[in-house]
Design goal:
Distance between the termini of chain B: 33 Å
Order of helices and strands of chain A: HHHEHEEHEHHEHH
Radius of gyration of chain B: 17 Å
Radius of gyration of chain A: 36 Å
Shape of chain B: globular
Strand order of the largest sheet of chain A: 2-3-5-1-4
Distance between the termini of chain A: 127 Å
Strand content of chain B: 35-45%
Structural class of chain A: alpha+beta
CATH class of chain B: Alpha Beta
Shape of chain A: elongated
Largest sheet of chain B: 7 strands, antiparallel
Number of helices of chain A: 9
Helix content of chain A: 40-55%
Order of helices and strands of chain B: HEEEEHEEEEHE
Oligomer: heterodimer
Number of strands of chain B: 9
Number of domains of chain B: 1
Structural class of chain B: alpha+beta
């Protein structure tokens, strides 16, 4: 095998690895044409690779440092049990058995809604109290309207927040929604690890590139992987933030004024509305006819 | 022909009877008398809008002074008048009556309204007086004196 063909085989292997790790299906036709079936396994380059910093220095690309994850899964393991370094003919491991799901901390996004009734004219005051509750628990304001407010509180204080809000005004309706994103975050983290491994290998290939064309090809692939890493890191961060804080939307309305059924004192008792006497002149009594100077 | 003549005579007599029982007052100083109309047998007013007037109505229900004063009070209370005082009065001619005094808001200003009901024969004689409280107050003694000058011929 010529040196050029062997290099192309490495690139092809890297593509295959990336596609398996990220669920992609595309394979550059040019590279496929360059590398026939003799491609080596992606995780076993024929010669000893340089260290990652050396590779980064050689390629001119800054090494990407992944944010610390609480319990990163094995770098080449996938949630579906397939590993990037699995031999092409090997049967995939069965599903979730390979994933350490029982050791992962559950990531649940809680969303709550409260409908409340307050005294007339006290909606602004109640909204201020609701914000105070959120801030007292380490959360804060998300949005405020004339008739309601959206707050966020740390998820561990979600239930406490609901209980404290019940003291602000009369609760007439509640709703709580829980969305488990544990599996979603885990899958994203596995993909992230695999992409980083791919990135590292590509950097090694870049160091070994023999001509400009090969270097450009690897550079393009490195760029694609970097973009995908950024996207997945953003998704993971977003989901973790959502799980660490819970949102509570509160809508407020004023209590309708009570209409007394029985008069509560002798002072304002309305006169009895008995039958009216059949005496027309009684109805014309009063100051208006007296003050009217028009001739009748 | 005879029946038509009889009807005309009866109508004339009843008209005369009505005129005979028309209630009148001695017009107080500073008041001007208005022409008689269908509602008021007598009406006089001051330059500042204080009015005093009389009505003569038939006592169809045969009610006494107490009955008519309570009926008037009920009607006025329903209309938002606030009763301030109530007392018996007697005219200089010896006619017994009952006087009710009210306060009422008109166009944002307090007005006084006095209504005094007398009975004479089968007639109900009603004397009313009203005006802006600011102008009515100083004239109250004058109006009290005018009311007791009631005459029903």
């Amino acid at each position: 095998m010529s040196r050029r063909t062997r290099f192309a085989s490495w690139i092809l292997a890297a593509f295959a690895f990336t596609n398996v790790a990220c669920g992609g299906a595309a394979e550059p036709p040019a590279m496929a044409a360059m590398a026939p079936m003799e491609a080596a396994p992606a995780d076993a380059p024929p010669s000893a690779p340089p260290s990652a910093p050396q590779a980064a220095q050689a390629s001119g690309a800054a090494p990407r440092v992944a944010p610390a994850q609480p319990s990163p899964p094995p770098p080449t393991a996938r949630a579906d049990g397939r590993g990037a370094n699995a031999s092409p003919g090997a049967a995939p491991a069965k599903g979730k058995e390979a994933a350490p799901s029982d050791t992962r901390a559950a990531l649940v996004v809680y969303t709550g809604g409260l409908a409340m009734v307050t005294e007339s004219g006290k909606i602004p005051e109640s909204i201020d109290k609701i914000i105070d509750v959120a801030e007292g628990l380490g959360g804060g304001l998300m949005g405020r309207r004339d008739d309601g407010v959206d707050i966020r509180v740390p998820s561990q204080h979600f239930r406490t927040a609901l209980k404290e809000l019940e003291h602000v005004a009369t609760v007439t309706g509640r709703s709580v929604k829980a969305e488990d994103v544990t599996e979603q975050v885990h899958d994203l983290e596995v993909r992230l690890s695999n992409l980083k491994a791919t990135q590292k290998r590509l950097q090694e290939f870049l160091v070994r590139a023999q001509n400009v064309n090969d270097a450009l090809t690897v550079e393009r692939e490195l760029e694609r992987v970097a973009v995908e890493i950024d996207t997945i890191e953003g998704k993971v961060t977003f989901l973790r933030n959502r799980a660490s804080f819970s949102q509570i939307s509160v809508s407020l309305r004023e209590k309708p004024k009570d209409t007394p059924i029985v008069a509560s004192g002798p002072a304002k008792v309305a006169p009895a509305d008995g039958p009216r006497l059949p005496v027309p002149w009684l109805e014309t009594l009063g100051i208006e006819p007296l003050l009217s100077l028009k001739k009748n | 022909m005879k029946s038509t003549l009889l009807a005309v005579v009866l109508f004339s007599l009843s008209a005369l009877a009505g005129c005979a029982s028309a209630a009148k007052l001695e017009t107080p100083s500073g008041f001007a008398t208005l022409e008689r109309d269908d509602t008021f047998a007598y009406r006089a007013l001051s330059a500042k809008g204080v009015v005093i007037a009389t009505r003569t109505e038939k006592n169809e229900l045969k009610g006494n002074t107490e009955f008519w004063s309570e009926s008037i009070d009920l009607k006025l209370s329903r209309s938002g008048y606030v009763k301030k005082a109530e007392k018996n009065v007697r005219s200089n001619a010896g006619i017994e009556g009952r006087q009710l005094r009210y306060s009422v808001d008109r166009q944002g200003r307090e007005h006084r309204y006095w209504v005094t009901v007398f009975l004479k024969g089968d007639r109900v004689l009603v004397v009313e007086a009203t005006g802006d409280a600011q102008h009515f107050g100083p004239l109250e003694p004058t109006i009290e004196q005018a009311i007791v000058t009631l005459k029903a011929d």
